[in-house]
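Tutorial, part two.
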Amino acid sequence: MHDFGRLKAVLWDMDGVILFSNPVHIASWEKVADRHGLHFTLQDLQQVYGKTNDVIIPYLIKTPLSKEQSAAISDEKDILFQKLIRDQAEYLPGVKHWLSLFKENGIRQGLASSGSIGNITTVLESLQALPYFDVVMSGASYPSKPAPDLFRMVAEQLGADPSECLVIEDAVAGVQAARAAGMHCVAVTTTNPPEALAAADLVLKDLELLNKQHILEMFNSAESHPDH
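Running the prediction step on this input gives:
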């Protein structure tokens, strides 16, 4: 058994952390936009990585939409994403190792993704990753990251104090949410440059570079608390 100090729970983001799904998301958004005669730029999309569809759609689509129109576009996009990702889902480097190691050592794990529950379920089933997680939650019903609500709710479901939680993120909004929740955070540079993720405790290219000492440095004493 490995000693991880005061670490009790790990909260994983999904897109850009467990798998590199951004190209599939982009393709899905582009197809929906084409069908509806809508327009947005890739730069626009990059500004809302890590956020929920109800935030993404008004940002991308400047034309006023009713709640029904927005919901229909969101559902259409997610159905396309799920169809495409089933045959393309692959773990990012180091992810499966850490999922397995945490589970073997009794560290509880939660998935806290801004994606819809349909997207989450499709990805986790495709990767055969469901057994690693004690809690799986979508942020669709909570204020979008960078609000800390989703992380706090997952931590509560895992029975862990925020100071005992490690968040693994790739999005600026996700890192901000982790800090606002009072949690330590490791960020990977899948979708953002290191300087954009500087608020995290640790920024790495991928999780193959994460080691036990990194974690102990964050969780090695009762006084170890992330800055708010």
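The domain at 9-20+90-218 is CATH 3.40.50.1000 (Rossmann fold). In part three we will examine how such features are distributed along the chain.
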